[in-house]
Amino acid sequence: MVDDEKAIIEITQKILKSLGYAVEARTGSLDALELFKAMPAKFDLVITDMTMPQMTGDALARELMKIRPGIPVILCTGFSENITREKAETMELKPF
Predict the structure, then answer these.
(1) The whole model's pTM is what?
(2) How far from 95 is each of 25, 58, 75, CA to CA, in Å?
(3) Contact 46/91 with Cβ under 8 angstroms?
């Protein structure tokens, strides 16, 4: 899971762990990308925020899918003019 807001990371990580999931959390896209590059088979799913400094969530998703095509990515945003249903579909992100 990737989000630049530590509070969101902490609560989401707590919820997912309580449901039995193993969670790796990062507060930066570049850190998350480096971790994924080092161990791409370790992850079953990536949850990322859309709006983050250095690399947006959609850019991160594209990079992850270059490394491991088909990796499920959940892209979260409260609101963004940078991502639309059509753009998500062209990126092969599933439900929007």
Answers:
(1) 0.81
(2) 23, 14, 10
(3) no
